[in-house]
Amino acid sequence: MNDVRIDPQFDRALREVLLEQVRNSSQQKPRKRWALLLAGALAGAGMLGGVGAAAAGFFSLPGVPATTVLASPSTAVYSGTATADLGPAPEGTTGIEVELTCLTAGTFIFPDGANVSCTAADLGTHGAWSKYVVPVDPSTRGVTITTDPGNMWQITGTYISQVPTEWKVNAKGETYGVEVPGRGAPDLIAVIATNGAAGYAYTNQMKGTDPASPEEAAKNLPKPQREIPVYLSDGTTQVGVFMAPG
Questions:
Q1: What phi and psi values does residue 57 have, to the nearest 5 degrees?
Q2: DSSP 3-state assignment of 132?
Q3: Cα 48-113-124 angle, rounded to 5 deg
Q4: Which residue has the higher pLDDT, 235 or 181?
Q5: Strands, DSSP E only, in the chain?
Q6: What mean pLDDT, rounded, does the chain reach?
Q7: CA dihedral (82, 86, 90, 92) positive or negative
Q8: Contact assessment for residue 132 and residue 44, using Cβ atoms and an 8 Å cutoff
Q9: Which residue of 1, 13, 155, 195 has the fewest CB atoms within a 10 Å radius of its CB?
């Protein structure tokens, strides 16, 4: 994370990560690649590659756990369903930071049901790479990835310890930071505005409206996007807008 240039694909991915925070991602198993990145981000996992100051700022946001690496990473290539054995977990381990790269197209499922799918077009690009943090228990020795026979994948696993961080509070008494699984969302949640400015939007404004009737819900029609103001952490100084789902 020492390259101050932001890779364009990573920048788009980061925007998707932040958008996922308002899609109740903590209520469901992550299913798409950027949802996986969100889970990793909330667990304090940094994304590697062309990551610049904006990304570094994201990973220091209030609510993102502080991470300590407890063992050297282990990297291996597998085919089909297999278990990457990392050996016994060191004392104090709370999770395994996993980097998974698709070497063939397919869907690859983590132990908790989260998954990432890669197409042929993703191979050899940033689109084939994902990062996720897998919870551990005392008997854990590694990570099992479930996939179809013949699907090839590379995994790098590292035992880590994470300590939760608290949201911060502005002068108006409002909390700000990122959504935290099990804790919910602060009053002001981190987003990136359409003009590229990093800031915060009021969580209650980010929530979409419910269908007016069961009949309307059954139609499953797309809703127009809504323009949400983006502020500094003070909740007053506007720096841009965020387009949220209706």
A1: -65, -40
A2: strand
A3: 35
A4: 235
A5: 66-69, 74-79, 82-85, 95-102, 106-109, 115-118, 129-135, 142-145, 152-163, 168-169, 175-177, 188-192, 198-202, 226-231, 238-244
A6: 75
A7: negative
A8: no
A9: 195
> Given CA atoms 159, 161, 167, 168 in this order, what sign does their dihedral have?
negative
The pTM of the full predicted model, rounded to 2 decimals, is 0.61
The letter for the amino acid at 181 is P
Higher pLDDT, 16 or 48: 16
Task: Quote the tokens at residue 85.
Answer: 């054995």
84: tokens are 């990457």
pLDDT digits (tens, 9 = 90+) for 218-234: 566 566 788 999 999 99
Burial string for 135-174 (b: 16+ CB within 10 Å, else e) reads ebeeebebbebbbeeebbbbbbbbbbbbeebebeebeeeb
DSSP-derived 3-state class of residue 53: helix
